[in-house]
Amino acid sequence: MSKEEFLRELRKKLEEEMTPGEIEEQIRYYSGYIDGEKEKGKTEGEITAELGDPVLLARTLLDTRQTKGYTEYTPEEQSVQEERRKVYKRSVDSSGCLIGILIAAVVVCVLLWLVGSIFRILAPVLVPVLLIAIAVSLWKKR
């Protein structure tokens, strides 16, 4: 079967339940697939034979479409869907920023804890040494 015959039969069966936009998307996909396989050295007959009966393929596409719940949106619905995608993308981007801030805060807390722990350990030794050093310094100046 030629590419044109295959795509014509596929289109005819898809027209029963798909919108024109969905049909064109499927036809473009299979046309491109056939062209790609031809570039690999296969004949149109071999490719269409591998794809199988276009009526069966169309039935599978229609069944899959129904189980996935595809719908074609009106222009107003499309703009609403696009806005929802933008809001979701912004929320995902902001959550990445929030995670970065949270990690930075944790790092600062850990560093402060380490410095505090080191000072707590060294304070009993350093404070008297510093006091003695200050006293000696003041004593020498007299």
What's the short story on this structure?
The chain has 142 residues and is mainly α. The protein contains five helices and no strands. It is rod-shaped.
Question: What keywords describe this structure?
Answer:
2 domains; 142 residues; mainly alpha
Structure commentary:
With 142 residues, the protein is an all-alpha fold. Helix 1 (3-14) packs antiparallel against helix 2 and helix 1 packs across helix 4 (54-68). It has helices spanning 3-14, 20-39, 44-51, 54-68, 75-141. The mean pLDDT is 85.
Note the topology.
Layout: H1 3-14, H2 20-39, H3 44-51, H4 54-68, H5 75-141
Helix pairs in contact: 1-2, 1-4
Instruction: Give the topology string: H per helix, E per strand.
Output: HHHHH
Radius of gyration: 36 Å
User: Could you tell me the strand content as a percent range?
Assistant: under 5%
Q: Main β-sheet: number of strands, strand sense, barrel status?
A: none
Mean pLDDT: 85
Query: Which oligomeric state applies?
Result: single chain
- Structural domains: how many: 2
Low-confidence stretches: none
Task: Give the N-terminus to C-terminus distance in angstroms.
Answer: 112 Å
Helical coverage, percent range: over 70%
Count of discrete alpha- or pi-helical segments spanning 4 or more residues = 5
Principal-axis shape equals: rod-shaped
